[in-house]
Amino acid sequence: MTRSRRGSAALLAVRVGALALIAGALVAWMALGAGLDACAGQDTGCVALVRTLAERMGLAVAGMTAVIVLTTVGLARTPPSGVRALR
Question: What is d(CA 74, CA 64) in angstroms, rounded to the nearest whole number?
């Protein structure tokens, strides 16, 4: 692997990680805000449940975002069938 290709892969990893982190944090924050409204006036068990579910949803969205972006990048780099790669 050449130096520029390695740098490109590292930059891609940083960008995908940042995008996944932002998407996951945003979803977790929105889910927490929406869920806490439903817990108004209830015990602390409801708040703990909502917080846990919001964290899990954020992690799931972060993982899915990374997979979808990396799949899209991989498909964009794949030449169409029947076309030979230029060397």
Answer: 15
For the chain, the domain total comes to 1
60: CB partners within 8 A, 6+ apart: 24
Query: Which structural domain range is residue 34 located in?
Result: 19-77
Residue 73 lies in a domain: yes
- Each residue's pLDDT tens digit, 15-56: 999 999 999 999 999 999 999 888 888 888 888 999 999 999
pLDDT digits 0-9 by tens, 51-79: 999 999 999 999 999 999 999 998 888 87
Give exposure, 6-18, as e/b (b: 16+ Cβ within 10 Å). eeeeeeeeeebee
The tokens for 1 are 């692997």
Q: Any idea what the Cα angle at residue 9 is, between residues 85 and 69, rounded to 5°?
A: 85
pTM for this predicted structure? 0.77
